[in-house]
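Same chain as my last thread, 626 residues:
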Amino acid sequence: MIGKLAKSVREYKLPSILSVVFVALEVVLEVFLPFICSDLLNFIEGVNGVGADGIETRVHRFTVFGIDTGASVSGALDSGAIGYIFAYAGILIVMAALSLTCGLLSGMFCARASAGFAKNLRKDLYYKIQNFSFENIDSFSTSSLVTRLTTDVTNVQNAYMMIIRIAVRSPLMFIAALVMAFTKNWFLALIFLAAALVLLGAMALIPKRAMPIFNRVFKKYDKMNLRIQENVHAARAVKAFVREDYEIKKFDDSATDVRKDFTKAETLLALTNPIVYFIMFVLILTTCTLCTVFIVNGQNDPTYQTLGGRLNLGDLSALVQYAIMILMSMIMLVMVLVMIVMAAESARRIVTVLGTESTLESPENGLTEVADGSIEFDNVDFSYAGDDEKCALTGADLKIASGETIGVLGGTGSGKTTLVQLIPRLYDVTEGSVKVGGRDVREYDLECLRKNIAMVLQKNVLFSGTIKENIRWGKQDATDEEIVAACKLAQADEFISQMPDGYDTYIEQGGTNVSGGQRQRLCIARALIADPKIIIFDDSTSAVDTKTDALIRKAMAESLPHATKIVIAQRVSSFEDADRIIVMDGGRISAVGTHEELMKSSEIYREAYEIQTKKSDDGEGEHAIS
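reply #2:
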């Protein structure tokens, strides 16, 4: 898991390393500050103190970092002593400034590295999802993929930021402060070590209890996001059926479920602060008490000599600061562990996506040219679940010549959409084979195959952007003239020309600012501009009136005679003049023939035609929105 995530660091390795280097320098400088302060206090105490024999001390040897420099001063804070105090102060200021600079640089590089890592991780996830087949996307669900791209990446980013900064700082601070404490008094340093180990043991139990809760809560996040996605996408339906209260309750239930789990987890994590501060205050009190005893009795008592010797006031100050540093490093380490616990499930979910290979891959050295628009189904079985006993399509045998116009009719769930989705290899067949241009679709490079097959899907999707930008989805380098020509074929030029900004009119997300019929015609234009060898219309003229439908069919027949056209529709009039019509029933091809032939041989087709014709004669025909 770590290896897969680490691949997304890439160009941000150097900032990550520099963050670690500067935080290490910051720690080294920080732990020496109490040591110098200790020497300064001991120096002042020595200049003005009284020796064990009761004679006032007048001479003090000057030391730096505990090393005798050979210099000495005499007199109660005479000019020489003041000079040394200023020297100490100068060293402290320089070291504090260097520590601050290292901390700032470490934070800057850490922010750059973590933000860059998150950017790369999102990009890698997004690119991976773009290569997924429909089967892959179905297995994850859209809401789950959105959560992984947003919340999960943010959690991993925060964890990475803490790992390259705090997770480096905490152990270094712990070790360095402990070593410096040993230089002052080994007995008290051992007490610090014992307290830190007790604290670490107590803290380790909390993340262990919290982990299962975080594992569970992210699945509930997916569910909550699904509620939001459904509600926003179907806002018109919700308002039309006055179901706002029902949708609010559904969302409230999901949000409450997430809150309950997070409350449990956060309650466990909230125990860390009182436990840590209790141990820290007890340790500081113990340190102050023992140091006082050592200062008062440690000069001549051999017992204290064996426990580290006599301590001075400066040593007390340093040891208290080292005790705080040791415990604070443990607190920071616990924070890192908590964040890692939260991010571990997010990381697992991200790696699951990154490690999932598309069920549809282009073959090595795949074909890069489609000969023509001929199509052949050879005893094809297909199951969405991969279960032979639950086939959506069974025993499909069909040959379509290049340039033919084919109509497809059938009831809901009869396998119409499944049949056409196998042609551009949106799914792979379970049994048999599908051939385009005389070659199995699995032999083609996927990009080449799909560029030669244009689909106008059952669910018409437009993207936020201008009409021109949406049409250019079919052909990136299309000229304005080509766009206008495609829109004229799709009978869309008329309503586009009436818009204030014409072809530069901005389309809202999902095409919500155009009607259903206009949206369908724009999607048809987007498909036609690619000049494909095969065009598939999956019930894509249901929202246009019969006159416009007829004009679209006529324009395509005249302008694209070479292209194979497959039209799925519920209206028989949409393909009545097709070369052949396929009748689907229960996942099987029930009948194939012309309109006249099917009127004689197919009860399903004849019944559909007669019902629609009768409605039309009665003046009750379909009046689709334009």
